[in-house]
Amino acid sequence: MPRLPPVPRPAAAASTSTPDIVAELGRIISTRRWNKGAAYKRLAPSVTAAHVADLFRAPPAPLHPATALAYFEWVGRRPGFRHTTASHAALLQLLARRRAPANYDKLVVSMISCSDTAEDMREVVDAIQAIRRTGGARLALSPKCYNLALRSLSRFDMTEHMGKVYSQLVQDGLLPDTVTYNTMIMAYCKEGSLAIAQRYFQLLRESGMELDTFTCNALVLGYCRTGDLRKACWLLLMMPLLGCRRNEYSYTIVIQGLCEARRVWESLVLLSMMQQDACSPNLRTYTLLIKGLCKEDRIDDARVLLDDLPQRGVFPSVRTYNTMIDGYCKSGRTKDALGIKSLMEGNGCDPDDWTYNSLIHGLCDGKTDEAEELLNSAIARGFTPTVVTFTNIINGYCKAERIDDALRVKNIMMSSKCKLDLQAYGVLINVLVKKDRIKEAKETLNEIFANGLAPNVVIYTSIIDGYCKLGKVGAALEVFKLMEREGCRPNVWTYSSLIYGLIRDQKLHKAMALITKMQEDGITPGVITYTTLIQGQCNRHDFDNAFRLFEMMEQNGLTPDEQAYNVLTDALCKSRRAEEAYSFLVRKGVVLTEVTYTSLIDGFSKAGNTDFAATLIEKMINEGCKPDSYTYSVLLHALCKQKKLHQALPILDQMTLRGIKCNIVSYTILIDEMIREGKHDHAKRLFSEMTSSGQMPSATTYTVFINSYCKIGQIEEAEHLIGEMERGGVSPDVVTYNVFIDGCGHMGYMDRAFSTLKRMIDASCEPNYWTYCLLLKHFLKTSLGNAHYVDASGLWNWIELDTVWRLLDRMVKYGVNPTVETYGSIITGFCKATRLEEACALLDHMFGKGISPNEEIYTMLIKCCCDTKHFKKALSFVSNMIDCRFQPHIESYQYLITGLCDEGDYDKAKSLFCELLGMDYNHNEVVWKILNDGLLKAGHVDICSQLLSAMENRQCHINTQTYAMVTNSMHEASGSVVSELRGEAA
């Protein structure tokens, strides 16, 4: 954070006087009867304290000390003239240098009295030291003067300078008195330096002086400031035995300490003891108690005490009422807080700025309209709102997602010449991004720059995080670049948000690269960052790399949390590797939670081991981990998939007995299986039971019924049900539309299928790969004659481009223009069938329509080229991607480099590898994917060794574990090759 420029010292810094005035003033004062002459009268109005200081400092100090002192006293009596510490210091130095007789005590006292700042008091200390240094013991000051200096220094908490003045007092042979010691003890106790305060206390005792109440109060305060309430209470009790009478200040100090430590009940005991000790609690005592009671959520007790004050002869002040208002607001009782405002006004106590700000802040938590009304009435009564006031209202409207009102208040704020601060801008930007009002968020960011403010890491990261959650990763990366250009350093949250967004956008290779960048920026990735990356690897079913990241996290001294284990467990279970997941958890000694158990139950159920899944539910219950409706739904799903509806239905009774309400997922699973088994009446009864229990049908539930109608050719009923779900506020999803399109196609209603495609797109539901598969399947079936059955899974092996062109033409006829997603889905199908020629023909067709391929299309084409050994074409697609500012997936390089080595083109493979090292890839992942999982598994040990050396020469950052893994794999692969050669020779 940039430092603010220092506040200039008044007259103590470089001279601000005019040299001509000082010179003329010196000449006039050197004459007799100077104050009677016309020359001085003409000059007098222009003379300032700065001129006087420069006059006394002027070399070689031509003024006689007596003349200087006389002029100092005379000009000081002039109306409107006020000496400064600088003018005092200049006179004292002049007198001390000449050892001139003068009342130094009086001059130092006068200098202290005009000291308004800590800087002024530093000049006083310098002046005292100068007097002692030049004048010696003959010009020593009195103890009274020293004590005044000490008290003034204490007022500015200048304990270090107090120590110097105390030393000066002792060096002058003076004896400190009780006032001296009390001042020193109190100053250090206020600061919390109790050890130093106790040394002065010991000196006081050794000097034979008696303690007084002030001394004990100071020590009590010191104990409270350092949190040693036990000693504070002990000293309070011992004061009478030490000869010191306790007063209301003694008690109030301890009461404050106890209240701040949330020990109000002890404070109330002291209150009773205080009254018995003939000490009358004052308003501050009661205000502290009210505040303490509010902090402990004893709001009603605080109110009783407030109402009781007049009967105790104490009348609440604004501060007392404000304390009560703050307590009510923090407890959410804004109605009661407003009642206190009315009470204080009725008692003739006007609310201050703090009152209004506190009430407005409290009302902004759900009652922002009332807060704004209060603000308007407060302004009418003379209240001047601050940036905090407006920010609270803006924040309140943002919490309620009333952005337009927040922007309106922002405009009012700016028109009142009250500039927004970064916090207010941050709140606005955060909610604008959250509500997908990106353009306004960008404008607000530009407004920050226009107002001369520098957005901080929180504001930048809020925008980045918002973009990433909306799936706009490209925009998030642009903000990230802007952030770096402006010199704002990203933090862990920034990187974690970007990594999350990139993984969600299926750009795992870019997310992995950010780990390297984080480390280069000196930021250590946390558990959340690693967990997000593990999730990304699991999404791609790359469990080897997921486990490697897990081990890397542990090697970096991080302890995986519950979420990290759950991510890996859930992914393994969904990939039918439940036994591996269970063994992993047992090996790590992980305590299974509800989420972990549910994932395992789901995994074992889908693997067909429903008996073990049921055992896990019982184990879960025995370990005190209660299964929820989702836990049972995974078991129900597995039983239904195994056609065991008769075993699934009794589980509903188990759930009821255990007090678990069946959720929409469980109901939908059972309804789906009933329909599959032809038990339509049972399904309808269960549907009625579901709706009567308060469970609203989901899109999946409706789709189950729509699918059943489509299968028996009742398209009208299916379409009617789609309309019914829309009227019920349930939007059909892509599966719903695909099911209906498939049903229309089976009946030969292709016009209705394309109308549904148009309806789907108009509803902002993006068609997916299966949408186009279904349309092409039915197109192909029509061209072959309806007697032929077409399997969607084998569709891409023998469909012709003519059918594709007819599909695209038909889409246009129905007002649906093919998009990049349309072409991407069809190209993906041809690539999966390794029909590169057809895929490339579609690519050319795209270009002819002015549509640019996306990253996914290029990636699929590169994979297809490698599968068909068209490596030159694959390399051209890689170049095209880079030209389009797409970063090829690291898997693309794995296929290419391994394929080139298979073909014996090692030079090209090595050149390509060196090119990718200059790009933003995580070097650990390069080793994992290309060297270990690519080349070594293909048996290319020598080239793998050369490429590893190339990485070392370029000083690529490789984790120690990763390096050990690849070198061990190379040794193992070399041993295998030698064994094979020996076997062949034999």
TrEMBL record:
Family: Belongs to the PPR family. P subfamily.
Protein origin, superkingdom: Eukaryota
Swiss-Prot/TrEMBL keywords: Repeat, Transit peptide
Any coiled-coil regions, as ranges: none
Pfam families: PPR, PPR_1, PPR_2
Source organism per UniProt: Urochloa decumbens
Cited InterPro entries: PPR-containing_protein, PPR_rpt, TPR-like_helical_dom_sf
Keyword Ribonucleoprotein: no
The keyword Repeat is annotated on this UniProt entry: yes
Name under which the protein is recorded: Pentatricopeptide repeat-containing protein
